[in-house]
Design brief:
Radius of gyration of chain A: 16 Å
CATH superfamily of chain B: Thiolase/Chalcone synthase
Number of helices of chain B: 14
Strand content of chain B: 15-25%
Strand content of chain A: 35-45%
Number of strands of chain A: 10
Largest sheet of chain B: 9 strands, mixed
CATH architecture of chain B: 3-Layer(aba) Sandwich
CATH class of the largest domain in chain A: Mainly Beta
Largest sheet of chain A: 5 strands, antiparallel
Radius of gyration of chain B: 20 Å
Oligomer: heterodimer
CATH architecture of the largest domain in chain A: Beta Barrel
Strand order of the largest sheet of chain B: 3-2-4-7-1-8-11-10-9
CATH class of chain B: Alpha Beta
Shape of chain B: globular
Shape of chain A: globular
Structural class of chain B: alpha/beta
Distance between the termini of chain A: 17 Å
């Protein structure tokens, strides 16, 4: 199973959907450069995903960015037989990956049979250029 | 900072009327018309009558008239149509918990002493768009940038919770399916339900359709076999199939709330609201756990403490079964059953049936009664009002004095939860 997109549909850039552009720019810049960047609170060391202006644990607004290893395990998963948005082609798998650094990230699995998906499966990131101006992080079975 | 750990209402609040529109695909009727229908039903339920001019304020729970009708200010329009022009009318939005959140505003309006008589409810008109567009519209209740971008939909988010639940406890998909069977059995007895039909009724209709079209007639041994049939119960987001999901529904509901000291002016049989709790939570990726709805646990704790009662005292409950797995999590989050096998098997073992030890969703729940998202929370109170006063007709809980009941309404995939407790004295 892989994630296919309908080329006729213009995929809106996730960073542009909400009002998160400023906070999330380093994340999406990182993805473009094939890295998963995590925001780290300079005050308490809390790792934040999604990125945001203020650490919800200690209220500090001082933060830095670290590069995640890009490995983790499946925290939960789902396969879709119906595509909710015309940009997606069913079937596809969406996963919640717990990165080795701790934060969880919503993504898709590629190169895996639906029946092989399981909670706890070790996964690693891969990057897919889904449109000229959009790269998305995906995950595949590690090793 | 000094603050009170345990909250009490500033003064008592009573529900003296409750009504709802017929739920379903209501072609030709707008939000406002549906709300008028609920209002008329509510008025008819007030034993000693209510003059609209005595209602001082209105709160309307609603998710998305912006999306489905290109219309803002739905509360103001509802006020105009029921004759409340000149009074404060406010829309309350908390995704699928909007209806309960609106009722909570009404409770606070009375408890604070600001008003004596208020109307609170909810309305949603959802069938104006094709199903896929509505699914996309509902996905705006997620964290759009970080959840929806992975192609997660609401069935998908709850499916991820179901997979985590089965992985943790080793429970079976059949346990979820049995929740749907039970709620359809209840909904079959509710004339206002979207699907006034049991799963057995639906099987019969499908067989009749096959015969009519000259197709081969399926031969299911029982309801579970029907629910396992991929043709008639297709997978939406594994393991959630069509009949694990609540439907897209049009509908409205509202309740009349008054100060406790004037309740008897309206009825000799008021229902007192003695506990109310509300909490919010992170999106799926920021959540401590996927096998429970933490916000619901917090809201329940607040409501139990305020009411001075515990889960064992609750005689019946309406809970948020937007997907079958949601009811399994709800009955554990509320403390009715232990999380895991006990909660998962409660429906299959008859414990949550109308004649079970803890009747859950006697109205048919969101699954069968329907889920007009902004109205669902308010409609839960309508069922409680009727059951507690012995007015639930064919689906009345048998041989039990329902003097204490609870509602549990969840917004989005657990990012909001509202729990309320009701007493008849």
């Amino acid at each position: 199973m892989t994630v296919e997109y309908n080329p006729d549909q213009k995929i809106p850039h996730p960073a542009m959907w909400g009002v998160l552009y400023k906070s999330s720019t380093p994340f999406w810049e990182g993805v473009k450069n094939k890295k998963i960047m995590l925001q780290k609170c300079k005050s308490c060391g809390n790792l934040l995903n999604p990125p945001r202006p203020m650490c919800p644990k200690c209220q500090s607004q001082e933060n830095e960015w670290i590069t995640a290893k890009g490995t983790g395990k499946i925290y939960s998963w789902v396969t879709f037989n119906e595509a909710p948005h015309p940009a997606f082609k069913a079937p596809y798998a969406a996963v919640l990956v717990e990165l080795d650094e701790g934060p969880r990230i919503v993504s898709n699995m590629v190169d895996v049979k639906p029946e092989d998906l399981e909670i706890g499966m070790a996964v690693e990131v891969t990057f897919e250029d889904v449109a000229e101006d959009l790269t998305l992080p995906k995950f595949r079975k590690a090793g | 900072m000094p603050y009170q750990e345990k909250r009490k209402l500033g003064r008592g609040v009573a529900m003296v009327g409750a009504g709802m529109s017929k739920f379903g695909v209501r072609n030709g009727l707008s939000n406002r018309e549906l709300f008028v229908e609920a209002f008329e039903d509510m008025k008819a339920s007030v034993d000693k009558g209510i003059d609209t001019k005595d209602i001082e304020a209105l709160w309307v729970g609603n998710c998305g008239t912006e999306i489905w009708e290109s219309q803002l200010v739905v509360a103001v329009l509802c006020a105009q149509w029921i004759g409340m022009t000149g009074k404060p009318a406010t829309k309350v939005e908390a995704a699928c918990a909007s209806g309960s959140a609106a009722v909570r505003q009404g409770i606070m309006g009375i408890a604070s002493g600001m008003y004596d008589v208020v109307l609170a409810g909810g309305v949603e008109k959802m069938t104006t768009l094709p199903t896929n567009d509505t699914t996309t519209a509902l996905a705006s209740g997620t964290d759009i940038s970080y959840e929806a971008s992975g192609g997660f939909t609401f069935p998908g988010l709850y499916a991820a919770m179901a997979n985590a639940y089965m992985n943790e406890y080793g429970t079976k998909i059949e346990d979820f399916r049995k929740v749907g069977i039970k709620n359809h059995d209840n909904g079959a007895l509710n004339p206002n339900a979207h699907f006034s039909a049991s799963i057995t009724d639906i099987m019969g209709k499908q067989i009749a359709k096959c015969k009519e079209r000259g197709q081969s007639v399926p031969n299911w041994a029982d309801e579970l076999e029907f629910l396992d049939d991929p043709v008639f119960n297709p997978v939406i987001a594994w393991p959630m199939r069509l009949y694990d999901c609540s439907p897209v529904t049009d509908g409205a509901a509202c309740v009349l709330l008054v100060a406790e000291e004037i309740a008897k002016d309206f009825t000799d049989n008021p229902i007192y609201i003695i506990g109310s709790g509300q909490a919010c939570d992170e999106a799926l990726h920021g959540r401590d756990t996927l096998i429970s709805v933490p916000a619901a646990k917090i809201a329940a704790q607040q409501a139990y403490e305020m009411a001075g009662v515990g889960p064992q005292d609750v005689k019946m409950a309406e809970v948020h079964d937007c997907f079958t797995v949601a009811e399994v999590m709800a009955v554990a989050d509320l403390g009715f059953f232990r999380p895991g096998e006990e909660a998962a098997r409660a429906a299959g073992e008859g414990k949550t049936a109308r004649d079970g030890i803890k009747p859950i969703n006697t109205s048919g729940g969101l699954k069968s009664k329907g889920h007009p998202v902004g109205a669902s929370g308010a409609a839960q109170l309508v069922e409680i009002f009727r059951q507690m006063r012995g007015e639930a007709g064919g689906r009345q809980v048998p041989n039990r004095d329902i003097d204490l009941a609870l509602t549990h309404n969840v917004g989005a995939h657990g990012t909001t939860a509202v729990v309320q407790i009701y007493e008849r004295r």
